[in-house]
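Thread: "does anyone have the structure for this chain?"

Original post by V.I.:
We have the sequence but no experimental structure in hand. Need at least a predicted one for the grant figures.
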Amino acid sequence: MAILNIDGVDMPAPSSFRNPQSDLDSSDTKRNELGILQRDRIRQGINKIELEWKAITDAQLSTILDAIEPSSIEVTYPSPSGYVTKTMYVGNRNIDIAKYKEGDIRWNVAFNLTEY
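Reply from O.Q.:
Generated one for you, C-alpha cells below.
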C-alpha cells in the first residue's frame, strides 16, 4: 500500500509528510477585559497534511496534479492510530523546476491538504 492514496489512486511517496492537527473556535472566542481567553472550541483535531515532493518526473507530477484537481477529495494516509480516510481539500500549490538537463525536467511540488 502506498503511504498516500487520493480518490483510489496511489501517489508517489512524498519527500516530506507532516500531519499537524488544529482546533476550530467559534466567533465567540475572545479575550475579556483582564486578557483571559474565553474559549468556545467547537471542533477538535482537524487534520492537515503538509506534503512535498522533490525532483519528480513529469509523469509523477501529472499523477499528483490530476488527483488534487477536484474541489473535494478522499485521502487515505497513515495516522498514529493506523491508516485513515478523510474528505479534504487542497490549498495553494507551489511548483518549481528542480533540475533541467537536456530536456529532462525534474519538478518540486508542495501543498497542503486540509480536512473538511
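V.I.: this helps a lot. The two ends are 24 Å apart (CA to CA).
O.Q.: and The helical segments are 58-67.
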